[in-house]
Amino acid sequence: MSAQISLFANAEPKTKKKRARRVHPSVPSAPATTVPTELLRFADWILLNSSGGKDSQAMASHICHLADRLGLLHRVVVVHADLGDVEWGGTRALAEDQARRLGVRFEVVHAEGGDLLARTVARFFKLKAKAEDEARAEGLDPAAAKVAPAWPSSSARWCTSDLKRGPIRKLMTRLVDELGGLGRPVRILNCMGQRAAESAPRAKLQPVEIDRPASNGKRHVTTWRPIHGWTDVEVWKEIACSGLPYHEAYDWGMSRLSCSFCVLGCEADVVLAARLRPTKAAEYVAVEKQVGADFKHGLSMGQIVARAQALEAEHGELQRPPRGTALARHVGKKATRAYLAHVDSDALNLAA
Ligand code: SF4
């Protein structure tokens, strides 16, 4: 009988029971308001997530301007999740410089346990061990076990949760502690520069929503995407008006910042990045070999490097573009000249 039971137990499909996420009963199910000035007034902390990229920069200057008018600048904190060497050189320093010029507090957070490349390798060995264990349990050859891709992707975007969201939540805990006993949960307004125009998934995001997973009995977190409806031109206009320096990678032709090689980036961006950072691209190729999977779905870093090398051979080494190239494309030469006349920023070593 016991043998029969174990037989049936083995035959049952393995379904992992998902643990229902418990949310503290005090956490509201919907935001109290979606009116910008009320959102700002209601918040104990106004947390501006800054990747150093153009969207978070435009968002930060827009919100700081509003908060200043309301006398709330002291509640604003810019937070940058430092991704280490996988992000463009000078990004962290730029985010800090922008916060300083806006007159607000700056915090930098880091994930423990290595950067994206180190984590991809560690994840591969974890997934491999799991696949081998499962194969053994099913009486199959563990050497033939299929290992799930270790790289992050649109369906397994662990890079964002591990390298950005997690460390930023730790900062939230610190900010809550700083306010001591308010006698009620601390209200954090977590502002992000995500825009509908960036992608179909981002278009589906709500401009204002309660971040229930980040909320608990001590803090209520509201996510606000203040520039969700903005166009590219509106973003660049805000940058031009703010006079804040923007990252030079845009002048070189990158459409996005953060990781130089983003698993979700377009081909033009990653090929350009491979021309600008050949040494880093070679590290990605080495990791690709180690984990036996392409960096991007359907496009390996090996292919990206080959395309970058072909372009180098055809057109020669990239020449540093004039400062303001990206801005001029969106706001015109006159506004760019006015911007450049009062913005001071050093040329960055993008290959660093
Ligand atoms: S920039 Fe791309 S690769 Fe880097 S953390 Fe964000 S989604 Fe992941």
Structure described in brief:
The chain is an alpha/beta fold and 352 residues long. It contains 14 helices and six strands. It folds into two domains: 36-115 and 153-230, Rossmann fold (3-Layer(aba) Sandwich), CATH 3.40.50.620; 245-341, no CATH class.
Layout of secondary structure:
Layout: H1 2-11, H2 36-42, E1 45-49, H3 54-69, E2 76-82, H4 91-102, E3 105-110, H5 116-137, H6 158-179, E4 186-191, H7 200-203, E5 208-210, E6 219-224, H8 232-242, H9 249-252, H10 267-276, H11 278-291, H12 301-315, H13 325-331, H14 333-342
Parallel strand pairs: 1-2, 1-4, 2-3, 4-6
Antiparallel strand pairs: 5-6
The structure holds iron/sulfur cluster (SF4).
Word description of this protein:
With 352 residues, this protein is α/β, with parallel strands linked by helices. The chain has 2 domains: 36-115 and 153-230, 3-Layer(aba) Sandwich (Rossmann fold), CATH 3.40.50; 245-341, no CATH class. 47% of the residues lie in helices and 9% in strands. The protein has 14 helices and 6 strands. The chain has helices at 2-11, 36-42, 54-69, 91-102, 116-137, 158-179, 200-203, 232-242, 249-252, 267-276, 278-291, 301-315, 325-331, 333-342; strands at 45-49, 76-82, 105-110, 186-191, 208-210, 219-224. The protein has a 6-stranded mixed β-sheet with strand order 3-2-1-4-6-5, with helices on both faces. A hairpin with an 8-residue loop joins strand 5 and strand 6 (219-224). The longest helix is centred in the middle third of the chain and has 22 residues, at 116-137. Mean pLDDT is 92; it is low at 1-13. Bound molecules: iron/sulfur cluster (SF4).
